[in-house]
Each structure stands twice: as structure tokens, then as C-alpha cells.
From TrEMBL, chain A:
PROSITE patterns: ADH_ZINC. The keyword Ribonucleoprotein does not apply. The keyword Zinc applies. PANTHER family: DEHYDROGENASE, ZINC-CONTAINING, PUTATIVE (AFU_ORTHOLOGUE AFUA_2G02810)-RELATED (PTHR42813:SF2), ZINC-TYPE ALCOHOL DEHYDROGENASE-LIKE (PTHR42813). InterPro entries: ADH-like_C, ADH-like_N, ADH_Zn_CS, GroES-like_sf, NAD(P)-bd_dom_sf. The lineage of its organism: Bacteria, Pseudomonadati, Pseudomonadota, Alphaproteobacteria, Hyphomicrobiales. Its cofactor is Zn(2+). One of its GO terms (molecular function) is zinc ion binding. It comes from Roseiarcus fermentans. This is Threonine dehydrogenase-like Zn-dependent dehydrogenase.
Automatic annotation (TrEMBL), chain B:
This is Cyclase dehydrase. It comes from the Bacteria. Keywords: Membrane, Transmembrane, Transmembrane helix. The chain crosses the membrane at residues 117-142. It comes from Roseiarcus fermentans.
Length: 391, 197
């Protein structure tokens, strides 16, 4: 089969690889009908997240049709079913899965010893997302082996196009969880940093959850246009001060809730001198992330507010103003997405026409064009916000 | 054996294996930038650790400190050229080339007994400078966003029934006063949940 394979920093290739096979009784094989490039794939593309190896298959936003199931897969899944595959692999049986904390499933990370050392405790296995999270081959491919398949799937009905359903795999529940865990109230101003795919979904989620005002922060005009179309007030941080504008909008009190949909690769610019220092440290291995957005959120958030962080961070961050965070009494909520916690509800919202996540797709391409599309997406060329791939 | 095949030792037996490699996402301009980045680091290390030999060869006796400083500069430019900010790294190499040429120019004088070596070095640096200018221009161009070409996403609300109808449509989730309850919220339950706000 063909698959997008990581060969090194910024080196993705569409390779011919051997087909996946059933390895365990609870496995299933999916014939992929659609997949996408996620913003967090770019962290792997840039090799900012450790433990990628040449030969790793990329991709954690995938859907398709079940073509084979293992002997241990129960009646919840059968050949011919149409499924979206959550990016988090979940056993459904461990204490964390039973508590709904699916992204920290205790059994699905097959490199538990490595993850225990890196994180203190292993988290769930993820598709196509480094050997720290299991080293599972990803879904930017023609076929995908799904471990714990009887619990790691979202069964979806026929009659709705892939474009509307695929993002149940990651960015829609990720934006949704970011907004839900911000505990949005009807009087809240919610500020969202980053208008990439997760930021766009967080904006729609905050609107649906009833925020009085949603403010979107980015520098790319077309992304800010998309945010504004979804009901947000745009702030272009290259042309105006984020702090001043947020304070103006809130009578000097600051937003009640802040969402970081940017993560470890904050835009580097002389106008934000801390990003220059972070980038220099990053280049020589003194820091893994560029946490400008975290610093700005802590500074501008209203006391007793909530910081919700769906953006991906890799490791060590310098210059986090803990005194400010503590004295202002801010609550921090973060984590990989517990996809299965939200998928039934979000699927119903798509079926009811409450939200159509396909709005975010700006580029459609064939799988073999994936390597070029990684570059287009990374360089934000041609107004690229989201790449949708079909084998 | 390629690295992709060598890494099989870290994989499960049944994981797909690379059979044939396809075209890379890495454009030629970036490959050239990487080569120049490694060249820069190699040259910089030489200047840093063997400044005396370089100074003597070029007839720049007594300027070991300067050669060391240039070595540090080369390493810095090399590290940046290997990063995603490669254009900045390459343009800094171009600036460094200009500095090198300015430093070497006085050594071309007839009073320098090593002027032949200095002339050779000057020519080499001029040649590398030319390569650097072309590489920097190419790397900048290949990653640039096209100016004045803005796609219009003003109609992409994501809400089939409009933004006004969407506002607060899921607000009943707030009725569940903790996330533990929200996580078990069955599909459609907010229709039965008490109104809030």
C-alpha cells in the first residue's frame, strides 16, 4: 500500500509499504477513504517532538471502512462498517477509560516503559505520533491497523460525506473539549489564540456553548476572516496589541476564559522578543517549546479565570510566570483529547445540522501529493488552513 | 540499508515496512541550505579550534581572536541554516561572507608574503558567497506566501443554520456543573436539561 512516511526533519515521502495485518484478536483493518494533515503533524514534521524514527507512518485523522476484524472483536464492529478512527487508542477497560479519561488509557501505549520515563506515567497510544505514544503506524495511508478496534472507533452512518465526519477523529472534539473545559458562562468573553484548524473548532464550540463574546487571535488575514465568519471578533497580533485590545473589549478586566490553540510553535517575531529568545534556545536544545501564548494568557486573563490548553507542548518551557498564575488564582486545564467522551454528542450535532466541520477544508489532494501538501500547510501558502487527503 | 529499514528493530513485527521510497517533501533549495549549514558548522569549528594555523596560512598573524570570533559566527549561521529559519541562516551567511571578504582584502597587498594563499581564500569565499546568495534567494522564494493573493473565507461559518442560531445552542451543557457529569452526557440530553443563564 501507499503511505506518507517520516524520513527525518521536514522529509515526508509517499512510500510503498507492506500492508498492515491483524496482530491481536481485538485488531481491525480499515480501508482508508479519507485522512487529513493535522497541525500537530507539523510538530513531527519539524522534529520538535522526540522519538520519531525514519520509516514511521504519519497521520492520526482517519476514516474508512472496516475490511477485516480480529477474532476478539465483539459485535460492536463488523466488516463493512463505516468508521471514523479517534486519534487516541483506548482499551475501554482500564480505570482511566472507565472514568472517561480516554487520552490517558493505561493499556494502549505499547511503549509504556519509555513513556513512563518521559512523562512519569504512560499516556494512551496514539496513531502516527512518535514512539513515546506507542509508535503505532498512522492513518495517512491506504490501510490502517486499529488496535483495540472494538472500542477505538466511531461508527458513522452512510449518507453524510467524509468531509463532514472525518474531523470527529481529532480537531472537532479537541476544539470542543477546549471550550467545554473552559466552563463557559453566558457572560464570558473567551479569547482564543491561534486560528488554525483546532482554533477554528474551538471558536465554533465556544459560540455553541453560549459565550457572550469570542475573540480570535492570529496574524493571517484569511484565517481571521474564517474566524470572524464563525462569530469571533478578530485580533491581528501583527497590527495591534493583543493585550490592549483584549483589555479594551473587556473594560480593562481581561477575558474570563483563554484558550491556547497554538502550542509549542508560537510565531517568532521581533515584535514579540520572548519568541526570539525561545527560538534561539530551541535551536540549541535548551528549551523544547515557545510558550509565548501561555505567558500572554496568564498576563491578560481575568483573575479567577480559566486557561484551557489544547495546543500541543513537547517538554520544557522557560519563563512561565508562575507567580502571576498563582496570585491571580487561574485554573489551568489541558490534555490530549478524550475523543470518545464527546463523539456521540458531536456526531449528533453534525447530523442535526448544528455544525458542519467541513468549513475548515481549504485544500483537497490525493495521498501521493501529501508530501507537497505538508509544505504548503506548513508555509501557510495559498491560504491553506486544512488539508484533506484521499488515497 | 536505509534508516527506515534499520529502524525496524524498534517496531513490532507486523508493522508496515518501507518497500520503495517516494519523492520527498524537502525541496532542493532546502537540501542545499542543509549542506551549507553543515559546511558552515565544519568551517566554524575549524576556525574556533585551529585559529593559529588559519591566520598563519593567510598572513593574518596576530589575529587569532578575530578568526575565533568568525568561527563562532559561522557556527551560529550554520545552526540557523539547519533550522526552519533557514532563509535567515543563509542570509546571515551572505553577510558573513561580506565580512570575510572585507577582512581578507587587506591581506591581498604586496606586503603580505602569503598573499597567494590570501588570494586563493578570497576567491573561494567569493565563490561561496555567490552560492550563498543563490541559495538564500531560492530558500526564501520556495517558502514565501504569494503576496496579494488572499483567499476569501468570509462565508465559512461552519454553522449551516447561521451564527445567530448557533449561539448558545449547546449551552445546556453548562447545566451539568462538573466535567465528570458532562463526560457522560448522552446524545440529545440537553433537550431535557434545565435551561441556564
Amino acid at each position: 500500500m501507499r503511505a506518507l512516511v517520516w524520513h527525518g526533519k521536514e522529509d515526508i515521502r509517499c512510500d510503498s509499504v507492506s500492508d498492515p495485518q491483524i496482530e491481536h484478536p481485538r485488531d481491525a483493518i480499515i480501508k482508508v477513504t479519507s485522512c487529513a494533515i493535522c497541525g500537530s503533524d507539523l510538530h513531527l514534521f519539524h522534529n520538535f517532538i522526540p522519538a520519531m524514527l525514519p520509516g514511521d507512518i504519519m497521520g492520526h485523522e482517519t476514516m474508512g471502512e472496516v475490511v477485516e476484524v480480529g477474532s476478539g472483536v465483539d459485535g460492536r464492529l463488523a466488516v463493512g462498517d463505516r468508521v471514523v478512527i479517534p486519534f487516541t487508542i483506548t482499551c475501554g477497560e482500564c480505570d482511566q477509560c472507565r472514568a472517561g479519561n480516554f487520552s490517558v488509557c493505561q493499556r494502549s501505549n505499547r511503549n509504556k516503559a519509555l513513556a513512563d520515563k518521559a512523562f512519569g506515567h504512560a499516556t494512551a497510544g496514539l496513531f502516527g505520533y512518535t514512539h513515546l505514544t506507542g509508535g503505532y503506524p498512522g492513518g495517512q495511508a491506504e490501510y490502517l491497523r486499529v488496535p483495540f478496534a472494538d472500542t477505538t472507533h466511531i461508527k458513522v452512518p452512510d449518507g453524510i460525506p467524509d468531509e463532514k465526519l472525518l474531523f470527529l477523529s481529532d480537531i472537532l472534539p479537541t476544539g470542543w473539549q477546549a471550550a467545554v473545559q473552559a466552563e463557559i458562562e453566558p457572560t464570558d468573553t473567551v479569547a482564543i489564540w491561534g486560528c488554525g484548524p483546532v482554533g477554528q473548532m474551538a471558536i465554533r464550540s465556544a459560540v455553541l456553548l453560549g459565550a457572550e463574546r469570542v475573540v480570535a487571535i492570529d496574524r493571517l488575514p484569511e484565517r481571521l476572516d474564517m474566524a470572524e465568519a464563525g462569530g469571533a471578533i478578530p485580533i491581528n497580533f501583527e497590527t495591534e496589541s493583543v493585550i490592549d485590545r483584549l483589555n479594551d473589549l473587556t473594560g480593562g478586566e481581561g477575558p474570563h476564559k483563554c484558550i491556547d490553540a497554538t502550542g509549542l510553535e508560537s510565531h517568532v517575531s521581533a515584535a514579540q522578543p520572548d519568541t526570539l529568545i525561545d527560538r534561539m534556545k530551541q535551536m540549541i536544545g535548551l528549551e523544547t517549546d515557545r510558550p509565548h501564548v501561555l505567558r500572554e494568557m496568564i498576563y491578560v486573563c481575568r483573575p479567577a479565570g480559566v486557561l484551557s490548553i489544547p495546543g500541543v507542548y513537547a517538554g520544557i518551557d522557560d519563563g512561565i510566570p508562575m507567580g502571576m498564575l498563582m496570585n491571580k488564582g487561574l485554573t489551568v486545564r489541558t490534555g490530549q483529547t478524550h475523543v470518545a467522551r464527546w463523539s456521540d454528542d458531536l456526531l449528533r450535532r453534525i447530523e442535526d445540522g448544528q455544525i458542519d466541520p467541513s468549513f475548515v477544508i481549504t485544500h483537497k489532494a490525493r495521498l501521493e501529493d501529501g508530501p507537497d501538501m505538508y509544505r504548503v500547510f506548513r508555509d501557510k501558502q495559498d491560504g491553506c488552513v486544512k488539508v484533506f487527503l484521499q488515497p | 540499508m536505509s534508516l527506515a529499514n534499520l529502524s525496524r528493530i524498534a517496531r513490532a513485527e507486523g508493522d508496515p515496512k518501507v518497500l520503495q521510497t517516494g519523492r520527498s517533501s524537502l525541496p532542493t533549495a532546502d537540501r542545499v541550505a542543509r549542506s551549507l549549514g553543515w559546511f558552515s558548522i565544519a568551517l566554524g569549528l575549524t576556525e574556533l579550534f585551529a585559529p593559529g594555523a588559519i591566520a598563519r596560512t593567510l598572513g593574518l598573524d596576530g589575529r587569532k581572536g578575530l578568526v575565533r570570533a568568525y568561527g563562532a559566527r559561522e557556527i551560529g549561521a550554520g545552526v540557523v541554516s539547519l533550522s526552519t529559519e533557514r532563509s535567515l541562516g543563509l542570509w546571515s551567511r551572505v553577510a558573513g561572507d561580506a565580512l570575510d571578504l572585507a577582512t581578507l582584502a587587506p591581506a591581498l597587498g604586496r606586503d603580505n608574503p602569503k598573499r597567494r594563499a590570501a588570494a586563493l581564500a578570497f576567491t573561494l569565499v567569493a565563490g561561496v558567497a555567490l552560492i550563498d546568495v543563490v541559495a538564500a534567494g531560492s530558500a526564501t522564494a520556495v517558502h514565501a506566501r504569494a503576496p496579494n493573493r488572499r483567499r476569501n473565507y468570509r462565508d465559512r461559518s461552519g454553522f449551516p443554520q447561521g451564527v445567530a442560531a448557533a449561539r448558545g445552542a449547546a449551552a445546556a451543557l453548562r447545566a451539568h456543573d462538573d466535567l465528570a457529569t458532562a463526560r457522560r452526557l448522552p446524545a440529545g440530553s440537553e433537550a431535557k436539561a434545565p435551561a441556564v443563564g
